[in-house]
Structures are given as structure tokens and as C-alpha cells.
Amino acid sequence: MLTQTFSKLFLFILILFNSNLFAEAPDPVRGKNGMVVSASKLASEVGIEILKKGGNAIDAAVAVGFALAVTYPSAGNIGGGGFMVIRLNDGTTTTIDYREKAPFNAHEKMYQDSAGNFLPQLSQEGTTSAGVPGSVAGLIYALEKYGTMKLKDVIEPAIKLAEKGFILDYRLAQSINYNYQDFLKYPSSKKIFTKDGQPFVEGDLFVQKDLAKTLKLIAENGRDGFYKGDVADKIISQVQSLGGIITHQDLGNYFPVERKPLISSYKRFEVITMGPPSAGGVTLIQTLNILENVSFSRLDWGSSNYIHTITEALKFSFADRAKHLGDPDFYDVPIDKLTSKKYAKELFNRISERAIPSDQIAPTDFSSTFESPETTHYSVIDKFGNAVSTTTTINSSYGSKIVVEGAGFLLNNEMDDFSSKPGEPNQFGLVGSEANKIEPGKRMLSSMTPTIITKENKPVLIVGSPGGSTIPTAVLQVILNYIDFGMDIQEAVNAPRFHHQWIPDQIDYEALGLTRDVMDNLQTKGQIIGTERTLGRVEAIAIENNIYLGATDPRGFGAAVGY
Ligand code: DON
After folding, report:
1. CB–CB of 97/277 below 8 Å?
2. Stronger pLDDT, 290 or 370, i.e. the higher one
3. Cα 445 to Cα 469: distance, rounded to the nearest angstrom
4. Residue 308 contacts by C-beta under 8 Å, 6 or more apart in sequence?
5. Residues 497-521: what's their mean pLDDT?
6. Number of CB atoms found within 10 A of residue 170's CB
7. What pLDDT was estimated at residue 433?
8. Residue with the nearest Cα to atom 2 of ligand 1?
9. What is the DSSP letter of 501?
């Protein structure tokens, strides 16, 4: 105890007096031919094996996607959705949107009672919260269009991991057991995520035979192995037995969409990121555009002026998100205006020494709360220079917590990302409006921000994060750390972060992120200090002098693997 107190004190003193805060970050992992960084070491190794066999970054990313469904079940998935940003070595850029969709029978007020009260237990829990899964269709689409290998070969490693099992390490056992009580509620989940009702322990062999069977059906039959036949029957039976509304038609009609990426500049760099139905890219670009007007050489990293300036920029971007962002197939999102340099300059000009209260940016009559979330990001680059940045999610940690009986995978609870009632915050405290209201077949708005940055036509950074509403702010800060403050990629990922999302009007921060005097100064400027919590888990690759530098986030338990 005394030692702990002493070491905390020591760290505190170190931070106060040492200007090079992150000198202790380990060196990034180096590779000349390929790099995979994901939230699971086993999954990163799968990706590297595919690269070593001659696969390209898309082959590896798809293999990692399926492997994460086995080795990182809190967020890796086949029962959810995601976004993949691709930049090929010839400069071609594209994105695959395999975000879940609202079922055909969904309607605007499905999560409200007759008096109009929001019912988060329906949008966040159980099969009522599930959107139509997109991951399998999206990964297969990416592979068929941009990969070089056969589906069965990229799924094979995931099948083996599920069938033969793997040893649970301390962190994964702990993560599964954190949700133990929920898993006990559903027999299909209890079967997979407990040992006959007892919690798993570190060192146990974790075998998932049902999931292996499902993966084999996908390997043999492609998307039909999931959206039709036995697996589809099992999904529908599980969903409907618990009052959910997904039908066979919903599954059969699910298709991913290939969309143009959002492309913008930040100083001498090009930013390639995900557009709607993710809000992440717009928020990132809008904020970077505002901050492009700042001379960071005159702002000390971590100082109150630095945090104040970024906070003000974030307030504008998040207020616009709440008003304007939704599925572009249903709502006309004013992307050009939101991402224009001119608009950013106008917003920048409104930033002063004094914090603008959130309700003076846009009307705010909402409250806001947060819950523990889960999503996962992975970054891949191959020896040819093809780069892939993918973020995927089942929303909450272990999604709806409901495993599809006999099929061995978890259903998402993504419907909560819709704005179930105007002004009512979802589990990330995010509010929305008309743009993100529930409609049949619509995709719920996301914050995921898979991003690739290039300079002089060469990739220099592949980055992304989980963390719900904190995703774009985490990605933003890693980019600033790397580009503007010259940190190496591991330092940039490790550095403590802060977050503001307009509503609630508060700055959340990580342990050691805001020193006492910085907090005091921020309060003097009118900022409100919020909660200490972990913000994001970034998995990043930097490319310097043709060397790939991988950095996994110490907030998680993933791995960068290179060769
Ligand atoms: O798409 C989104 O924005 C959310 N469903 C992401 C959830 C998430 O990042 C939770 N992660 N920690």
C-alpha cells in the first residue's frame, strides 16, 4: 500500500517536472514487410501469417476480422457491423460500409412507451436492441473485390481457433467474467461464456464449437452461409424467442455499401476517413480543419490553453453532429459545408480565451450519462504498401450479451446508436435529431473513425479506436500528438487523453491527463471538469522511411505484430 502510494507520488512528481512525459513508452514494433495491430495478439498473428503467405492487406484484414470474432468476443464479431477504409498502393481509396441496419419492422417510436418515455432497456438490452448484422457480408465483399485469396483460406485460422480453442489469458478471462451475471440470464450465452455456470479462469482452454460450425458454413457457402439456411434460421429463432423483430427477409436483404471515403487535408497531410453513416470522419475532419488555424508551436502540449482550444473546437463539431448527421441513404447530410475550410475558419474565429457554454453553441435541454462500451479497431499494411483501417463493433461490451443458440456468436445491440427520441441521450450520452431517427432499413449513426493519413502520396499513419463518442477525439489526439508534437507512434498512442462532446458540457480526462493547476486554469476560462475515465484504445501503424511501426494501446491487451 505504502509502496503504491509512493510510486503514484513518484509518477506525479515525474510528470510535473519531466517535460518528456512519454520517454518511458516502449519502442514501437518494427516491420519491413507487413504490420498488423489489433486488440488481440492471436488475431494479429493470424493477419501476419496471411501476409507471409503472400496475401495482401485486405486478405489479412478479413482474416483478422474473422479471428477477432473468436479471440476477442467482447467486440470482434460476426453478429455486428463495421467500416473498412482501404488505400491501395496505386493511390485508389475506398470504404466498405457494413454497418448494421434497422429491421424492416422498425419504427421511429419503437423504444418509447405510450406516454413517449424513452425505454433504454429495449434499445440497449436483449434481442430488441439488435440491428441486422453486416460484418459477414462486408468482410466477404471486401475480400472478393480487393483481396486475392479464397474465403476458405482466410477464415481457416479463425475456424481452428474456435474449434481447437485457445488459452484464456488473465485479461480476457476477466473481461468475460465481468459480464458473468448477464451471461447466466440467457442459456445460450451461459453455454459459451461460462464453464457450466462457473466463471472461467486464466489458463482455461476456451473452445467454441458452435462458432466453428458457423464459420465453416460461411467458408463453404459465402454470405449465404450466414444470411440463409441453418445459421439464418438460428438467428431468427433466437431473436424472435426474446421479442426481437429481425426477419429472414431482413437477413436476405442485407448488403454492404461501397462508399467514397471522406478526403481532406490537414497541413501537408491527406486524411482519408469514413463518411456517413459514421459521424466519426466528419467530426475528425471538421475538428482538424478548425485546429489547422492554430499554431501548435505556441501551445504547450497538455497546457490549459491547448486543452481549451481543442475543447472549443470539439464542442462545435459535436453540436453539428447531433443536428446534421445520419444515414446518407435516408437523410441529406451537409457534408461539404461541415468539412469546408471556410466554415472551420468561421468556427475558429469564435474561439476566445473564455469557454463558450454548450447551450450557446446550440440549444441543449438534455441530460447525459455513460456506460462501459466495447468496439475494436485494427490496422494493417502489407509489403506492397496497401493499407487497411477497420473498426468493428457489436456496440456494448459483448453486445446484447445474447449468443445465438447453436451458432455460437453474439448479437449486437446497435439499435441504441439511433436517436430513439429527439434529445434523449443514448448509452454514450450522444443526442441526435431527425437525421438519425429510426426508419426501416436505415443504418444507425456511428462514431467509428477508421482513418489513413498520407503525405506526398504515401501512407504515413493508419489509425482508429473504439470508445463510442470518444472515438473521434481519441483518433484526433493521436494524430495531433504524432503530426504536431513529434511524438513517436507509441508515445502518441500512450499519451493521456481528454474528451468533450458538447453535451454534457464537461471535459472528461484520463488519469494523469490533467494536472491540478491545468484544471484550475481551465475552470478559470469557464470550462467544466468532468469525469476521470479511460478514453479509447487506439491500434495504430506509422510508416517512416519504409519501415512499419506498430503501436497497440496499453489501455487494452492487444498486440502489434510485424515481420
Ligand atoms: O458505432 C458506434 O459509434 C458505437 N456503436 C461504437 C461503440 C463503441 O465504440 C464501444 N467501445 N468501446
Report:
1. yes
2. 290
3. 11
4. 355, 522, 525, 527
5. 95
6. 11
7. 84
8. 446
9. -
The alpha carbon torsion through 194, 465, 158, 153 (nearest 10 deg) reads: 170
CA of 17 to the centre of ligand 1 (A): 36
Strand, helix or coil for residue 289: helix
Mind giving me the DSSP string for 194-239? SBTTBPP-TT-EE--HHHHHHHHHHHHHTTHHHHSHHHHHHHHHHH
What spacing in Å lies between the alpha carbon of 394 and ligand 1's midpoint? 8
pLDDT tens figures, 356-372: 999 999 877 654 444 44
Residues designated catalytic: 375
Measured CA to CA, the distance from residue 11 to residue 24 in angstroms comes to 12
Specify the pTM: 0.94
Q: Closest ligand 1 atom, CA of 537?
A: 12
Tell how far the Cα of 465 is from the centroid of ligand 1, in angstroms. Answer: 9
- What are the chain's domains? 1-39+73-118+256-563 (3.60.20.40)
Sequence-distant (≥ 6) Cβ neighbours of residue 216 within 8 angstroms: 159
Averaged pLDDT for residues 460-479: 98
Q: Which atom of ligand 1 is nearest to the CA of 471?
A: 9
> Which of 100, 374, 395, 446 has most ligand 1 atoms within 8 Å of its beta carbon, as the pocket-test mutant?
395
Please list every protein residue whose CB sits less than 6 Å from any atom of ligand 1.
Answer: 373-375, 393, 395, 414, 417, 446-448, 466-468, 471
Please compute the mean of the pLDDT values over residues 395-412 and round it to a whole number.
97
Which cell numbers in the block locate residue 209? 464449437
Those residues whose C-beta lies under 8 Å from the C-beta of residue 110, and which sit 6 or more positions away, are: 122, 128, 420, 438
Above 70 in pLDDT, residue 2? Answer: no
pLDDT at 15 over 50: no
Can you tell me the mean pLDDT for 221-240?
A: 98
Residue nearest to atom 8 of ligand 1 (CA): 468
| 445 CA → ligand 1 middle, Å | 10
Q: Backbone phi, then psi, for 552, in 5-degree steps? A: -95, 155
Taking CA atoms only, the protein residue closest to ligand 1 atom 5 is 395
- Counted residue by residue, the chain has a size of 563
Q: How far is the CA of 447 from the centre of ligand 1 (A)?
A: 7
Q: What residues are paired with 269 via a beta bridge?
A: 266
Position 328 pLDDT exceeds 50: yes
Confidence class of residue 108 from pLDDT cuts 50, 70 and 90?
Answer: very high
Mean pLDDT of 260-266: 98
Nearest CA to ligand 1 atom 1: 446
At position 88, the amino acid (one-letter code) is L
